[in-house]
Write a structure and sequence with these properties.
306 residues, 12 helices, alpha/beta, three-stranded antiparallel sheet
Length: 306
Amino acid sequence: MRNSLNKTTEIQKHESKWPTESVAHEVGENDDIQLNCLILAIEQKYGYDFSHYARASFKRRIYDALQRFELPNMAVLQDHILDDAHFFKRLLDRLTIIVTDFFRDPFLYKALREHVVPYLRTYPQIKIWQAGCSTGEETYALAMLLQEEGLYERSLIYATDINQSALDKARAGIFDLSQVKKGSKFYFESGGKTSMATYFHTEYEYAAVSDALKKKIVFSYHNLATDQAFGEMQLILCRNVVIYFDRQLQERTFSLFNESLCRGGFLSLGAKETLSLSAVYSCFDCADLEARLYRKKMFFEALSDG
């Protein structure tokens, strides 16, 4: 663990070398043209398609990146990412918003215990997909819940994201001790049955997830904009991701989830996200509105709805 902690510290020191002072960038009449060129350049060079991300939100993140990296305009930013893959990784961290906590929104985990756990108990093998897993806090929280409900050993969690740096941190499972202490409050609010501390090894100001909690989690790259469905999942969680997509990409994502869920399976979205305007909405019932928890209907029910 000490080597992993030292590596984490070195990464943090390296990232601290990036400029922290904001500078004004040029906002010109050609910004939309430059943005289109930048999106195309990113796709052709690195394979990331941001063309169907919500335009206003994506543009704000680009402007933030210009200030962060002290660059005057998007044309200069484009030159940097084409010439420097490491620089693009830093940009990607700013384009893929990382806002997560252990047991974030405790009411969701209460809803999972009430509605989903009894359903999962009926399966000898359980498959779960957490799309947009970020740095792994919510994935490990789900693993803790499954452990406490006696379901972890027969479960397999596929946790995916497009940000490789976030996935690397998730796999390492090393977090600031302050994050774990903050999560402990949410843990008890969510119906936790023991103590979050039992799932970690602590050293100095860091906490490392135990190997026992990692063994049923597969962290891997998956792009909701371009990649295909996973098969026969009993539970899919994708929280606070599709809110950043335009309507076309939202529809693609919801169709992907519908294809990936088995009959009677559950889908969890973020607090500001909904299936209600989606073409696949007729295939689902709302199990818990507050938790944005939906259940896929049995096949004959979906057909009867037309």
